[in-house]
Amino acid sequence: MNQRRIAQIHARRERLLARSAAQRDEIALLLAPLKAPLAVADRGIAVAQYLRAHPGLVAIAAAVVVVVSPKRAFRWARRGFAVWRSYRWATRALRELAP
């Protein structure tokens, strides 16, 4: 290959790299509004995968609902969820306060 052809290839490569970087930036801007919904979907998929990997937990939860009245079981689940969210909020707040 001669030097001229190599220079053309390098120039074309640089143009393509710049074009692909601009396209990546454009796609990121277009998808920015979907970031939060996609994060929720990712968390849902992660929960489903966890439950699939731990079927015993699902069976125990179903047995608790059957043994205890469903109304009482859901009330306790709501309370547990509130406690868990409070714990998560407190740990995040403390992490932000501590350097």
In short:
The protein has helices at residues 3-31, 35-53, 55-67, 70-97. By secondary structure, it is mainly alpha-helical. The protein has a domain at 54-99.
How would you characterize this protein structure?
- The mean pLDDT is 90.
- It contains 4 helices and no strands.
- It has a domain at 54-99.
- 90% of the residues lie in helices and 0% in strands.
- It starts with a helix and ends with a helix.
- The protein has helices at 3-31, 35-53, 55-67, 70-97.
- By secondary structure, it is an all-alpha fold.
- Helix 3 (55-67) packs across helix 4.
Give the helix/strand class.
mainly alpha
Q: Report the total helices.
A: 4
Query: Roughly how many Å apart are the termini?
Result: 58 Å
Please report the total strand number as a whole number.
0
* Shape annotation: elongated
The biggest beta sheet is recorded as: none
* Beta-strand residue percentage: under 5%
Q: Low-confidence parts, pLDDT < 50 over ≥5 residues?
A: none
Supply Rg.
26 Å
Order of helices and strands: HHHH
Percent of residues in helices comes to over 70%
Chain-averaged pLDDT = 90
List the helices and strands and how they pair.
Layout: H1 3-31, H2 35-53, H3 55-67, H4 70-97
Helix pairs in contact: 3-4
Pick out its properties.
single chain; 99 residues; mainly alpha
